[in-house]
Amino acid sequence: MSEQATPLWEVFIRARNGMSHRHAGSVHAADAEMALQAARDVYTRRGEGLSIWVVPSAAIIANDPDEKGEMFEPTASKIYRHPTFYELPDEVANM
Amino acid sequence: MYTQALNNPAVEAGVEDEEKLAAFQARIDREEKIEPNDWMPAAYRKTLVRQISQHAHSEVVGMLPEGNWVTRAPSLKRKAILLAKIQDEGGHGLYLYSAAETLGVSREELVDQLLTGKAKYSSIFNYPTLNWADVGAVGWLVDGAAIMNQIPLCRCSFGPYSRAMIRICKEESFHQRQGYDLLVAMMKGTAEQQEMVQDAVNRLWWPALMMFGPSDKDSKHSADSMKWKIKRFTNDELRQKFVDATVPQAKVLGISLPDPDLKLNEETGHWEHGEPDWDEFYNTIKGNGICNKQRMKDRIKAHEDGAWVREAAQAYAAKQAAKKSAA
Amino acid sequence: MTDTALFTYCMRLADDSAILSQRLGEWCGHASHLEEDIALTNIALDLIGHARELYTYAGQIEGKGRDEDALCFHRVEREFNNLLLVEQPNDDFAYAIMRQFLFSAFMHPFWEAMMNSKDEQLAGLAAKAEKEATYHLRHSAEWVIRLGDGTEESHNRINNALEFLWMYTGEMFECDEVVSSLVAKEVAIDPMSIKHLWDETVNTVLVRANLERPTESWMQTGGRKGEHSEHLGHILSPMQYLQRSFPQAQW
Ligand SMILES: [Fe+2]
Ligand SMILES: [Fe+2]
Asked: One Pfam family from the UniProt entry (chain B) (predicted)?
């Protein structure tokens, strides 16, 4: 197999105004314009989108799952960040 | 998808750490999803690459039998529906190749495996579509069987595969309905049209049942796949579900199914059915189905005829990148 | 009666869309890569949509009870009035892309102008078709540029397609009695009024693609009068086969 690989792009789509872009999938394309068009043709055939981002897959930096402990566990003990940590006096109905 | 750099299958070759294996199985048992960069046993990765790419190849080769009728669709409405349906299958192939790519193989490698005959695809697509009702019967029976297989895959333990399947299943129900609708329209029509429908169902019924794979007693991949929650029902269980769902639909349609052993078991509520011709099944898998060679020839031709197009796009991109960095 | 002119006008546009979508449909499952397979089908689906609306409207104007399928599947070669350009075969991807580009570069300003037609149906269709044609033009133009400025092979192929298809572009700008009578009523578009836009698009894209615009020479004609290349009959044969074989059947 001698064929050179066509780059991979990640596709993010905003379904409606007011929502953030969500990862929809990926496409292969030689350049950004073709990736954008492919994303439109592949991922918005049923009116799924109002805005598209394409990002070269190679440009995404991910954390190593083995670092899960140091990355994410420290937050678990900080329960005081959550509103349910605090008990309100009965007299206060809402806050 | 995401960084492939972290996917290093080589690291996982050789003897695997018992502790890691146990932790992995525990995650699966807790119904946690496994994501591409997580540690996974080499055999799990291998099984997934094989299954997802085989699934992707099936979607892509599956475009051909229906594509056989695009230029001959008998109305503009049916032509549009058929094109949209086949296009979806191409999309499914694309989603699935992407899911497989998260495991560290490139689409180019996977396509190469298909075109060199190293990878398999569903045997159903090696049967010909001989009359227009075949297009309807494919939608009703073949997509119907595929949906039975695919719905449990939405809960598959591997995240990217499960997400691709959720997207695919959303699109699939249109496929089965348009097929059934096409057949209903033909059954309301002339005697010739009704004959076409019966003929198509007679030819496609058994191959559709074979889509669930060999009987449980002969299936070699099932045990591991069940343990890893890649698969959640056995071949025979899914086949039974399909038969139970389809028999009443055949009644409504007003056609007969070509199985003299088909009868309702009042106690279990299940439709008992005859045994598919497994010799035919294995023979088709071996490459001797009526369309195997033609399907491969068509895929190879499309790939080879397209090589200069893909090269041109890459050459242009390289030139533009060079210009940009020079500026 | 103007109705005859309007009927003919709609049928021409419908035939253009129907025949070109038939050509694009031939790619389904056979394109160079999955992304492009899906893209070409999207264009085909848009065009089938245009054809269906236009045939239906033409059938209403005619008032003889012919629906979209009667008009598309029960006429012979000589009754089809599409442009010769759209019936040209898919010799390779370059032919398909150049054919699409030359056509869409015309249809984009055409539908844009049609949005102001006094005919409400045509204006309504134009509002939708204009957006679709914009995308068809973008997609095909970007490919023309990539093939023209890609490899030596792709350059030669797209150049061959350009040189071959060029002689069919003159037909888009023909203005016969049918068109001029409807232009006078502000229903139809005078094709010469958008020629400068077509020229501009074509020139800009060809420059970016390193392609030379062919010198003005003989332009083929005949499609609008039902005088076609030999290809049309081969398009209609499979396309109409079921409708012709089972004329009483509904599908
Ligand atoms: Fe599918
Ligand atoms: Fe499907």
From this structure: PaaA_PaaC
CA distance readout (Å), B319 to A6, A58, B77, C82: 15, 20, 43, 39
Residue B173 located in a structural domain: yes
What is the domain range of residue B142?
16-324
> What is the count of structural domains for chain B?
1
User: C92 vs C154, C159, C233, CA distance in Å?
Assistant: 11, 12, 20
Q: For position B190, which CATH number holds? A: 1.20.1260.10
Q: Is B1 on the interface with A (CB under 8 A)?
A: yes
For residue A92, which phi and psi values (nearest 5 degrees)? -90, 110
Chain C: partners with 3+ C-beta pairs within 8 Å: A, B
Domains identified in chain A, total number: 1
Is residue A91 in some structural domain?
A: no
Q: How far is B176 from chain A (nearest CA, A)?
A: 17
Q: Contact at 8 Å (CB) between C179 and C190?
A: yes
In a domain, A95, yes or no: no
Q: How far is the CA of A14 from the centre of ligand 2 (A)?
A: 26
Residues of B in contact with C232 (CB under 8 A): none
CB contact under 8 A, C42 and A34: no
Amino acid at B35: E
Coil, helix or strand at residue C119: coil
Average pLDDT, chain B: 93
Any domain includes B66: yes
* Residues in chain B, total: 327
In a domain, B306, yes or no: yes
Task: Kindly compute the dihedral angle of the four CA atoms of residues C236, C239, C245, C246, in this order, to the nearest 10 degrees.
Answer: -130
| pLDDT (tens digit per residue) in C143-181 | 999 999 999 999 999 999 999 999 999 999 999 999 999
Q: What is the 8-class DSSP label of residue B158?
A: B
Q: Which chains have at least 3 CB atom pairs separated by less than 8 Å from chain B?
A: A, C
**For residue B1, is it within any domain?**
no
Among C29, C52, C249, whose Cβ lies nearest the Cβ of B76? Answer: C52
Ligand 1 centroid–CA B204 distance in Å is 17
Q: Which of B66, B87, B297 to mutate to test the interface with C (most CBs of C within 10 A)?
A: B87
CA-nearest of A19, A20, A27 to A44 is: A27
> Which runs of consecutive H residues, i.e. helices, occur in B254-306?
278-283, 292-305
Q: Across the interface, which of B91, B182, B190 has its CB nearest the CB of C38? A: B91
Task: Flag whether pLDDT at B12 surpasses 50.
Answer: no
Question: Are C31 and B92 contacting, i.e. CB atoms less than 8 angstroms apart?
Answer: no
The pLDDT-based confidence of A71 (bands split at 50, 70, 90) is: confident
Q: Is residue A88 part of a domain?
A: no
Between the CA of B82 and the centroid of ligand 2 the distance, in Å, is 11
Tell me the CATH class for C2-218+228-245: mainly alpha
- Which of B2, B94, B112 comes nearest A62 by C-beta? B2
Which structural domain, as residue segments, surrounds residue A72? Answer: 6-83
pTM of the model: 0.94
CA of B172 to the centre of ligand 2 (A): 5
Task: Note the pLDDT tens digit of each residue in A3-18.
Answer: 789 999 999 999 988 8
Residue B263, judged by CB atoms within 10 A of its CB (0-12, 13-18, 19+), counts as exposed
Which tokens go with B153? 């895959």
- Alpha-carbon distance of C131 to C239, in angstroms, equals 28
Q: How far apart are CA C131 and CA A25, in angstroms?
A: 25
What CATH number should be reported for the domain holding residue A69?
A: 3.10.20.520
- Phi-psi domain of A28 (left: phi exceeds 0; alpha: psi -120 through 50; beta: other): beta
A5–B108: do the CB atoms touch at under 8 Å? Answer: yes
